[in-house]
């Protein structure tokens, strides 16, 4: 198509693909961490093995009744076993009575 | 279930973009200040106690802002803009749909020309690509192919590449990792000649339309359909520009009785693409020798010198997924073959020769990086049954250990100037871009279509 100034006009299409997921709200939050069980998920990277114990200590000092399920219970969330570990996660979290999850490390 | 995601300071943007792609735009994150690797234990503890812990508590107990309403996006095929060449290019660049070079305006008519070179309908799904979770289709492959400057007859290769990108084995979701590895596409089969790919001198240099534009297509597709963008999902610390397609010299392969990369990866017959991500590489110049045994030590030494932190893919995360690529010029391949080596035998010799002292290996995975948790010794990993016994055949720290778990983990390709005695070694990115091969499916009327295309 030629425009009024003699230049060719292009009618161009969208280069992207349709999103396959709908945006949803995250799960309701807890009223307190007191008496709750928190699962830890780690991708085996960036000092999570130091950071999770530090967090445990800090959270336990503020919520003495909080309980933790250590990251090694679940396996690494990144790496060769990633797909299996993630697939097994819902059942494991339920069986262990986990109320909330702390996941790391993005770095 | 309530979650708190621990995110270092430089990754909050990526976390937000990735969360949106996963359909959870309100996903809360807890800040870990700075980068943990340069913090003393005391600094790290102070940051965790004073910043991260508070954010974790808020993440788990306070409702985040509700997700805003769904963004309405154009339908496939919808005209999104009308304008001159320059105006279209500016519009695409401003919308992050272009790599900064001029694009060919993707009009419906040009896209239709590409669709003639596949028997599959435009709406056919080729998979879903992370991190944006967008659907790869024959249509959007064609659109990005037009933009990249491809010719319509390249379409069967572009479709195969999108299928490879969507294969979970490849791991496209890792394409924005910080080392900034780049994909190499290797092409095998009759299409090399039919479509005029360069497989001789300057095989990895831009300047030949088929090699160059298909390489550009790859990164445009990563941008527009997978969703990798600077400062958001693409966290390459440095990065580099896309690689042109590497076509193997199959005349040489046939002459010396070697298999192609596609055949090695289990896709014999016809044409095929193999994709794999490499962290880097370098030329091995002027390989001297008249026999294989004279040449092998230099080649093996060069392969070892290209690999450092990537050893985490040999024995750590994704154990056994380090797949170094050795690219040989035809004259080197011919000399090695004359010495009685087929590809399998060459890989075995590399496995024997491409070694480093155990103390040095352990320095890469334990002292200089923290990419393998617990900083284990090779002996402890062998004892735990996690890696082959070859890594601990003695207790001597100076013992030589391989850089891959198995001889067949090496990949060998033949291309480049037929009469130069140069090679090229690539270090591999392990499971974060694992070698994945897909056959190229041609339309039923390929010979007629190709004849017509050549006349244009």
Q: What is the share of helical residues of chain A?
A: 25-40%
Report the count of strand segments of chain B: 14
Q: What is the overall shape of chain A?
A: elongated
Order of helix and strand elements from N to C terminus of chain A: EEHEHE
Oligomer: heterodimer
**How many angstroms separate the termini of chain A?**
50 Å
Average pLDDT metric of chain B: 96
Radius of gyration of chain B: 24 Å
Largest interface: A-B, 58 and 94 residues
> Which percent band covers the strand fraction of chain B?
15-25%
Count of spatially separate domains of chain B: 2
Broad structural category of chain B = alpha/beta
How are the strands of the largest sheet of chain A arranged? 3-2-4
Report Rg of chain A: 23 Å
Q: List how many beta strands of chain A DSSP finds.
A: 4
Largest β sheet strand count, sense and barrel closure of chain A: 3 strands, parallel
> What is the helix tally of chain B?
17
For the residues shown, what is the average pLDDT of chain A? Answer: 95
Largest sheet of chain B: 7 strands, mixed
Output the structural class of chain A. Answer: alpha/beta
Which segments of chain B are poorly predicted (pLDDT under 50) over 5 or more consecutive residues?
Answer: none
List the helices and strands and how they pair.
The complex is a heterodimer of chains A (107) and B (456).
Chain A: E1 10-13, E2 37-42, H1 48-62, E3 67-69, H2 82-95, E4 100-106
Parallel strand pairs in A: 2-3, 2-4
Chain B: E1 3-8, H1 12-21, E2 29-32, H2 41-61, E3 79-83, H3 85-94, H4 108-115, E4 125-129, E5 134-137, H5 138-148, H6 155-166, E6 182-188, H7 191-194, H8 209-226, E7 246-247, H9 250-256, H10 261-264, E8 272-284, H11 292-305, H12 312-315, E9 325-328, H13 330-338, H14 343-353, E10 355-357, H15 358-367, H16 378-383, E11 400-402, E12 411-414, E13 423-428, E14 436-439, H17 446-454
Parallel strand pairs in B: 1-2, 6-7, 9-12
Antiparallel strand pairs in B: 4-5, 6-8, 8-13, 8-14, 9-13, 10-11
């Amino acid at each position: 198509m030629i425009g009024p100034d003699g230049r060719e006009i292009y009618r161009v299409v969208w280069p992207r693909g349709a999103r396959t997921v709908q945006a949803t709200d995250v799960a309701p939050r807890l009223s307190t961490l007191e008496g709750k069980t928190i699962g830890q998920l780690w991708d085996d990277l960036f000092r999570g093995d130091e950071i999770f114990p530090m967090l445990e200590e800090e959270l336990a000092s503020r919520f003495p009744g909080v309980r933790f399920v250590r990251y090694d219970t679940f396996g690494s969330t990144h790496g060769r076993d990633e797909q299996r570990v993630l697939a097994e996660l819902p059942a494991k979290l339920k069986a262990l009575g986990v109320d909330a999850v702390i996941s790391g490390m993005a770095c | 279930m309530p979650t708190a995601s621990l995110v270092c300071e430089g990754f909050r943007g990526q976390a937000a973009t990735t969360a949106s792609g996963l359909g959870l735009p309100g996903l809360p994150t807890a800040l870990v200040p700075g980068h943990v690797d340069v913090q003393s234990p005391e600094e790290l503890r102070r940051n965790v106690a004073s910043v991260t812990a508070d954010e974790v508590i808020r993440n788990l107990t306070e409702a985040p802002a509700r997700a805003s309403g769904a963004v309405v996006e154009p339908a496939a095929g919808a005209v999104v803009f009308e304008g001159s060449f320059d105006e279209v290019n500016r519009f695409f660049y401003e919308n992050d749909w272009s790599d900064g070079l001029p694009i060919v305006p993707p009009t419906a008519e040009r896209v239709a020309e590409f669709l003639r070179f596949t028997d599959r309908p435009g709406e056919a799904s080729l998979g879903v690509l992370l991190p944006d979770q967008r659907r790869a289709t024959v249509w959007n492959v064609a659109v990005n192919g037009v933009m990249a400057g491809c010719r319509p007859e390249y379409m069967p290769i572009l479709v195969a590449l999108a299928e490879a990108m969507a294969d979970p084995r490849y791991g496209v979701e890792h394409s924005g990792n910080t080392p900034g590895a780049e994909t190499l596409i290797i092409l095998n089969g009759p299409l090399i000649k039919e479509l005029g790919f360069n497989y001789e001198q300057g095989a990895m240099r831009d300047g030949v339309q088929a090699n160059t534009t298909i390489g550009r297509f790859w990164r445009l597709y990563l941008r527009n359909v997978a969703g990798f963008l600077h400062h958001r999902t693409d966290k390459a610390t440095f990065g580099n520009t896309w690689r042109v397609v590497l076509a193997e010299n199959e005349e040489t392969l046939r002459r010396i009785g070697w298999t192609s990369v596609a055949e090695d990866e289990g896709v014999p017959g016809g044409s095929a693409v193999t994709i794999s991500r490499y962290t880097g590489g370098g030329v091995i110049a002027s390989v001297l020798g008249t026999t294989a045994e004279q040449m092998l030590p230099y080649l093996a030494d060069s392969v070892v010198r290209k690999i450092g932190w990537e050893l985490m893919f040999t024995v750590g995360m994704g154990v056994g997924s380090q797949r170094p690529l050795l690219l040989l010029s035809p004259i080197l391949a011919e000399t090695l073959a004359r010495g009685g080596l087929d590809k399998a035998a060459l890989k075995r010799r590399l496995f024997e020769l491409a070694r480093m002292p155990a103390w040095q290996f352990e320095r890469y995975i334990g002292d200089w990086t923290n990419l393998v948790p617990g900083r284990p010794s090779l002996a402890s990993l062998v004892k735990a049954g996690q890696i082959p016994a070859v890594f601990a055949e003695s207790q001597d720290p100076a013992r030589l250990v391989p850089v891959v778990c198995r001889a067949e983990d090496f990949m060998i390709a033949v291309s480049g100037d037929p009469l130069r005695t140069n090679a090229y070694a690539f270090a591999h990115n392990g499971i974060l871009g694992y070698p994945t091969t897909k056959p190229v499916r041609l339309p039923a009327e390929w010979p007629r279509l190709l004849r017509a295309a050549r006349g244009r």
